[in-house]
Specification:
The complex is a heterodimer of chains A (214) and B (180). Chain A has 214 residues and is mostly helical. Chain A has 10 helices and no strands. Classes of the chains: A mainly alpha (214), B mainly alpha (180).
């Protein structure tokens, strides 16, 4: 699926740029007449590739910090303790993961960090959870049911405090910068419920089940 | 209201230092060799960050092409007859499309939309709710699956997209219900 989305983004993106360059009437004020849009697109391609590396390298310090802290938590038995407490919920969401597996604790910590809007802590904890989930993976390179469920919870996660949104609204002079929070929490709760239901239903489809075999 | 903003800011500021403090103290109490354990775990940080680079480059370049070439405007034009049926103003479509693709892009779109229509307009509220309730789905998919070298993502992508669409629809419905 990611293959098709990737292809579509590239074909449509470049196709539109070509189309716009051909159909656009010449602008005498512009520095470069043709192909102006393709020039911007070109810059976009190079810029995005650089941004990707900057983003990834920027993660190193935070990753090291949280993976270090997590290792202490793990050896102290905190992760197992957390997994035990939330067992009634997590064993239903992730039936393939043993209840006291370190993956459970890491997933719970990642979801909590996301809810609090602590993006810096959430990503390393989430990647730690993926690493643990991958230890249970019988077919490396293919996503397990638990990974899919975890990612859907992650991408539709309930965020209690959306700090950047509040900041932009304050800067724009809003009379009530936080008034959107209630609606946002309800909307994201709905999307999480629908997402988890969908991921569970799709996992039952023979098409997706077959990909786990062999 | 300022008090609420201050309280949430204070909680966010305290959360990480307090979490680190409690884990380290609990570890020491449980007789864990905390310094050694930390270093052992932290070693992995570099590898994980480097491992996700190819996945992130692939995803961000494709999204970059889509944004820079002006495909977003065409998508808005195509979608607007449909979205007007459900009470979603055309001005909010770029936000709805950008939210799952790019975090910084979505924040930029939100700032522009709010600058143009005001934070307390229906459109301004709608983009705020969309921004606050959504997540950068494709970034998360690329980074999380990339970190364990998973390329066959199975049903994660369709389920993630369905959840995103439902989140957008729920935002439109709620904002119209509360402020419409």
């Amino acid at each position: 699926m990611l293959n098709y989305i990737w292809l579509a983004l590239i074909i449509i993106g470049i196709g539109v740029a070509v189309g716009k360059d051909i159909t656009q009437p010449p602008d005498p004020a512009a520095e470069q007449q043709f192909p102006a849009i393709m020039k911007v697109t070109n810059e976009g391609i190079i810029g995005s590739a650089k941004t990707a590396v900057t983003l990834a390298l920027g993660l190193i310090g935070i990753m090291a910090l949280w993976l270090g802290v997590m290792k202490i938590a793990e050896q102290a038995g905190l992760i197992t303790l957390l997994a035990k407490v939330l067992k009634p919920i997590t064993s239903r969401l992730f039936p393939d993961v043993p209840a006291e597996h370190p993956a459970m604790g890491a997933m719970i910590m990642n979801i909590s960090a996301n809810m609090l809007g602590l993006a810096n802590a959430a990503t390393p904890l989430g990647l730690k959870a993926m690493e643990e989930l991958n230890k249970l993976n019988k077919k490396l390179g293919t996503a397990t049911d638990a990974m899919c469920t975890f990612l859907v919870i992650n991408t539709s996660n309930v965020q209690l405090v959306a700090a950047p949104v509040i900041a932009i609204r304050v800067a724009a002079g809003s009379a009530n910068p936080t008034e959107f929070l209630g609606a946002a929490i309800v909307a994201t709760t709905i999307s999480t419920i629908v997402g988890v239901t969908t991921v569970k239903l799709l996992a039952k489809l023979p098409f997706y089940k077959k990909q786990l075999e062999g | 209201m300022q008090a609420f903003v201050d309280i949430t800011k204070t909680i966010s500021t305290f959360a990480i230092p307090l979490l680190i403090l409690s884990i380290v103290v609990y570890g020491a109490f449980k007789k864990v060799k905390i310094y050694e354990a930390f270093v052992e775990g932290a070693k992995e940080g570099f590898n994980v960050a480097v491992r996700i680079i190819p996945f992130l480059v692939a995803m961000l370049v494709a999204i970059g092409i889509f944004r820079a070439g002006g495909a977003m405007e065409i998508l808005t034009a195509v979608l607007s007859p449909l979205t007007s049926l459900i009470g979603m103003p055309a001005e909010t479509i770029p936000m709805a499309v950008m939210r799952p693709l790019s975090g910084s892009g979505a924040l930029g779109v939100m700032s522009e939309t709010i600058a143009a229509h005001g934070p307390d307009s229906l459109i301004g509220r709608m983009v705020s709710v969309m921004m606050g309730s959504g997540e950068t789905t494709f970034y998360v998919l690329a980074v999380y699956f990339g970190s364990v070298s998973v390329t066959k993502t199975r049903h994660a992508v369709p389920a993630g997209i369905i959840a995103d669409v439902v989140g957008i629809l729920a935002s439109v419905w709620l904002v119209n219900l509360i402020w419409g």
